[in-house]
Amino acid sequence: MTHRTALVLGATGGIGGHVARRLRNGGWTVRALARDPGKAGAQGGLEWIRGDAMSASAVAHAAQGASLIVHAVNPPAYRNWGKLVLPMLANAIAAARASGARILLPGTVYNYGPDAFPLLDESSPQTPLTRKGAIRVEMERRLRMASDKGDVRVLIVRAGDFFGPGAGNSWFSQGLVKPGRRLRSLTYPGKAGVGHQWAYLPDVAETMVRLAEREARDAFATFHMGGHWDEDGTRVLEAIRRVVGEPDLPVRRLPWLLMTAASPFVPLFRELVEMRYLWETPVKLNNARLTAELGAEPHTPLDEAVRATLVGLGCLPGCQRTAATCPTV
Prior knowledge:
Helices cover 37% and strands 17% of the residues. It is an alpha/beta fold. It has a domain at 5-166 and 197-230 and 281-300: NAD(P)-binding Rossmann-like Domain (Rossmann fold). The strands form four sheets. It has a seven-stranded parallel beta sheet, with helices on both faces. A three-stranded mixed beta sheet has the order 8-10-12. Strands 6-14 form a two-stranded parallel ribbon. Helix 4 (81-99) links the parallel strand 4 and strand 5 (102-107). Helix 4 packs parallel to helix 5 (131-148). It is globular and about 55 Å long. The two termini are 38 Å apart. Mean pLDDT is 91; it is low at 320-329. GO terms for molecular function: aldehyde dehydrogenase (NAD+) activity. This is NAD-dependent epimerase/dehydratase domain-containing protein.
């Protein structure tokens, strides 16, 4: 790339924040759009710009001169997806078209239904079962359409369930553990013996940036990450037990029936219940294309990744919310 300026939409979130910092550390000039730059500006080294991703003019202004737009913005707490997600993407596409920037999107497995399981590659059919999955499919369809017109380049990096420091809206932080307190038990959403795929946020950010920094051979490209594959639903639980030093930490099952009953009144429960099917069958991403491109996938050892996550969530006794204050594995 002749210039290395990136606009990150969603830099105050988990994946957006990690990608923004990785770009900054790699020598990029990083702009970050935020409704309240003063509050968000705690992340140093970024150029914070006041604006809303729902404003086409704000996004276009922030993207001027950028060669990369990271579209990592999502409605908070899963609210108003149907009203907000596609307009925000439309603004990013318009800004990319005007600036010549490439769009970098973190993808999800929500796009897929049982007809594509258990092993997903980049050509697997996208026939989702849920409203949010249908929106994700539509996002990628619109990006493909923009790319086919020849004026927008697109890179999608798909990964499993996020965990890591700053992964607030995640199954790890909202399901397995309770943030801000010492662990006395764990909760697991999946069936016994059913595999599940996890993705450590710093690894995802590293992968996304490495791919974005390579010369694009295709105007529209998708890559799948392998992440951490938990073949029977016990690997992550056992890693948590090892990190906290409690091998007999009890594991409870997620109360799906209670959440289903409460879902008409609790938007978060409604969205989580929709995704239950992803915990009832193995869903694994094939990363062969990614490893062929990069040689190897960035991969932090599981215990190290779990420890950093628990530190970030305030779940390790005696640790503050920064990895610098806690012992390493």
